[in-house]
Amino acid sequence: MTVSTTGTAPETMTGATAEAAGAAASQHGIIGRPVARIDGPLKTTGTAEYAGDFHLPWMAFAVPVQATVGKGTIRSLDVTAAEAVPGVLAVLHRGNMERLYRAVPNDPNATVSETRPAFEDDRIYYWGQYVALVVAESLEQATAAAAVVKAEYAAETPEVSRELEPFAGKWNTVSTRGTVDAAFAAAAVKVDQTYGTPAETHNPIELHATVAVWDGDRVTFYESTQGVVNHRNAMAQILGVPRENVTVVTKFLGSGFGGKLFPWPHCALAAVASRKLQRPVKLVVTRTMMFSNVGHRPVTEQRFRIGASADGKLVALRQDALNHTSLVDSFDEGCGEATGYLYSVPNLTVASALVGRNVGSPMAMRGPGAVPGLFAMESAMDELAVALKMDPVELRLKNDATVDESNGRKFSSRHLRECLETGSAKFGWKQRTPQVGSMRRDGKVLGWGMAAASWGAYRFACATTVDLNADGKARVRCATQDVGTGLYTIFAQVLAEKTGLPFERIEVLLGDSSMPEGPLSGGSWSTATVLPAVAEAADGAIASLLSIAASTPGTPLAGADAKTLRMTEGRVHRATESAGLPSAGVPFEAVLQAARLNGVSADGRSGSVFEDPKARDLSMHSFGAQFAEVEWEPEIARLRVSRVVTVIDAGRIINPRAGANQIRGAVVMGVGMALLEETVYDRRNGQPINGNLADYLMATSADAPEIDVTFLDYPDFALNSYGARGIGEIGLAGVAPAIASAVYHATGVRVRKLPIRIEDLMQA
Ligand code: MOS
C-alpha cells in the first residue's frame, strides 16, 4: 500500500528515462506511474511562454506609481515632469482616468483580491498603494517618469503593528460543541498559550504580470493567473464589457501559492491603459511591489486552551484566532480550518476575529488557515504532551477521531493513525529520549519533534473536450491552468490510459478562457476536479470512434458490433484480438481517414463535490504526519533542520514523481516558515522594509533538510472514480510545529511566535 520515494528507482530516474518509460508504458500502468512532466523540456529550454514573455508589436510599458505613506489622503498629484519625460504616452490617475467598476460582491465566479479598484478615492490605505500609472514607449522611460510623479499627502500614522491584542471587537464563533470553558476549568492537565505567525509574502519566482491588448471592443489578457475563467469574468465586470469580449491566456505559471488566484488592481490598470492608447500594454509588478500590492499571508495571533485528563484524553479545546486584514477588505484566514475535526474532543469552540491594519489586502497562501492554525494547535499539543509526560505521537493516537465531530459526518478516507505510525517507524522515533538536550550526534544537540497535518479535499465543476484526430493525435482542452505542479501531465496520463497513445501523440491545451471551463488552480483541488471530466470526454470520443469504425465500409472492422471493439495502444480492434499487438485491428487515424473525418470529439463534465449526493455528507480531507530533526550547536548558536520524514494520506497518487516533488517543495517552504520568513512593516510609514529577495529570508537549497516522502496511496473513491485527492498544501501543514517542537526538544526554548530566531534560542 505504501509508495515510498526515498532513494528508490523512480526518484533517481533522469527526465529522459522517465519520459521514455512514460511513453512506452502500457496504458493500464500509466496512472500512478512516476512520469516526468510533459512540459519539462519547454521549461528547461526556455521556450515556455509566461505572461511577461509576450512581446507584441507596438507594445507600450506601464509602471505604477506607489504611495509613500501608509495612511492619509492625497493632497496633490503633479504629473508635469513625468509627462515631459521622452517616450511617455500617458500618466493616468484619479483625475483623468475612466471609471473602473467594482466586481459584484460574493460572485464566486468573478472574485477579486482587492475589492477597491485602483484610484477609486483619494484615501491611502496602505504603503505602496497605486496612485498613478505611467505608460511609455519603453520600460526604462516609464520607470524614469514614474519616479518624477510628485504626490503630496496629508499623512497620518499607519497602524501596522504585529501585535493584534488587546482586541476589543466582536468575535465570531466558527465551530462549537459541548461546554468548553467549564470542561477546561475542570481539566486535570492544561495548556493555555498564545501563538503567533507573521505576515508572509508569496514569492513565486515568476512576477505578477499583465499584458492587455484591445481589438475593437474585445480584450485579451496574457496574464499570470491561477484562474483564467475567474479572471475573465471579473475583468468583464470591472471594465464593463460582456464576458464574451474578454479572453485570458495563461499558458505557464511560475507558480502563485495563492497570490495569483484572483485579479489585483494592476490587471485592470493595464487594460484601461491599453484601451485608452489602443496599443498592447505590458505591466510587470516588481518584486518589491509584490511585498505590498499583491497579497500576503496575514499575521495571526491564536490563543489555544487545551485540557486533558491525567491519562491524556482531550476534554476541552478552545481556539481564539485573530488575523490582520486590510482596511479595504475583510480577509478571514480561517485558522480553525483543521481544529474542529482533527482530534476527538467533546468540548470545543473555535472563534475568530479580524483586526484592521494599514497593509494591502491579505490573500490565501499555501494551506490558508490550516497552516497557521496547525502551527498553533500542534505546538499546543506538544506542550500538552510535555505537561502530561506523554509521548507526543501517543497523545495524537490516543485522541484520533473516528468521525468528524464538528458535524457528525463520516470521513471519506482517513488514515492519520497510519501516517503517525509509519512516520514514527521511518523516522526511528522510538529511539527518542524525551529530556531536553538529551540527544547528541557528532557533538551537536539533536531535537526531534513531530506534528499531525490535514488539508481539505475538494472537487469543483469542470468541463473538458477530447478530440481524436486524423493526424494520429489525441487532444484535450480545458480552461484551467498548470501552476507549475504537473497538471499538464495529469491530463496526458488520463488520455494515455484511455487511448494507449504515447505522450508524443497527446496534446494538452490549457490556459485559455475560451476553452471549456475548468477549475481555479487553488486549494490543491485541480487533479481531483479534472480527472473525471477528462475521463468522461475521452470515453465519449473513443465511443464515437468505435461506432465509426463499425460503420465505415472499407475498414477491417466494418460491420462489427461497436460494442465488441476496443481502443488499445492507439489501435482500434476487436475485443477478441490480443490487445497491444501491432497486428490487432487498425491505427485509429486510419479509421478516421477511411471515414473522411478530420476527427471525433466529445465533452466531459464533472460537478462540484458539494452538489454530489454521494459525497456531500462526507467529511473529506487529506492527512499527514511530519517528523523533524534539528541540529543545535549552542557554542556557535547554529540551528539547522537536518531531516524531515513526511507521510501523506492524499488518496490515490496519480503521479508519485510530481507529487513527491510538491511535498518536498512544501517541506522546504515549511523550513522557511519555521525559521526565516517574515514581512516586516516600518511602523513610521507602513513600508515592508524587507521587500526584496535579499532581505526577506526564504529557505534555499542550502537550508533544505534530507526529506523522506511517503504516500499511503489509499484511493478516496467518494471524491472521484480515480480516488485522487490533492497534493501540495498538505505538505506544508504541520512542518513548522514539528520543527518548533524539535527546537524545544533540543534547546528547552518554546518559541510560540514565528519565525524562530537565533536570538530566541540564546536563552538556552
Ligand atoms: Mo492555494 S493558497 O489555494 O493557491
Task: Outline the secondary-structure elements.
Elements: E1 3-4, H1 9-12, H2 15-24, H3 40-44, E2 60-66, E3 72-78, H4 80-83, E4 88-93, E5 123-124, E6 130-136, H5 139-147, E7 150-155, E8 172-177, H6 180-186, E9 189-197, E10 209-215, E11 218-223, H7 228-239, E12 246-249, H8 265-277, E13 281-284, H9 287-293, E14 300-308, E15 314-325, H10 339-342, E16 347-356, H11 370-388, H12 392-398, E17 403-404, E18 409-411, H13 416-427, E19 439-441, E20 444-456, E21 462-469, E22 474-478, H14 487-499, E23 506-510, H15 526-551, E24 565-568, E25 571-574, E26 586-587, H16 588-594, E27 599-606, E28 618-619, E29 621-633, E30 638-649, H17 656-675, E31 706-711, H18 729-732, H19 735-747, H20 758-761
Parallel strand pairs: 2-13, 11-12, 15-16, 18-28, 22-23, 30-31
Antiparallel strand pairs: 1-31, 2-6, 3-5, 3-7, 4-6, 8-16, 9-14, 10-11, 10-13, 14-15, 17-18, 19-20, 20-29, 21-22, 21-27, 24-25, 25-26, 29-30
Helix pairs in contact: 11-19, 14-15, 17-19
The structure holds dioxothiomolybdenum(VI) ion.
Dioxothiomolybdenum(VI) ion is lined by residues 226, 256-258, 261, 364-366, 368, 522-523.
